[in-house]
Amino acid sequence: MKPVFRKISAKISNAAGTAYAFLGAVFVVLVWSFSGPLFNFSDTWQLVINTGTTIVTFLMVFLIQNTQNRDSKAVHLKLDELIRATKARDAFVDLEDLTDEELSQLDKEFHEIHDQQATGPVMKKLQKSIKIEHELRKTGNRYSVEKLNEIIKKITDY
Hints:
flat; 0% strand; mainly alpha; 158 residues
């Protein structure tokens, strides 16, 4: 059962992610929309699109999640192999098992390491953009243009 489901979910996920699938969905919605006057915009007419989209969405969630889980596992295994084959720290192999707080602390430590190592002009420019992005995330992106310019000025003055 598992190999069959894996193959089917991969094929459907790949097909659903194409421009043709999107155009097909747009076509279905257009046909449904233009058929409204023929059915006097009845409850049954509305129920058809609601039921259809609900069923398709429900099934696609499982198929896409299966594909995403497999892709994520493959990426983790590739990264684990790179860590194993290089002089990188083995402690990073199971980072996905850390708590959100531990991951946040590790992220902060890496930012500090990065800040210390950024010496060239390109690295300094990247560092500034990362600080701007960090400030925006911290504030929830609720700032006016003037406030954003103030944050950028503050960061570029470092």
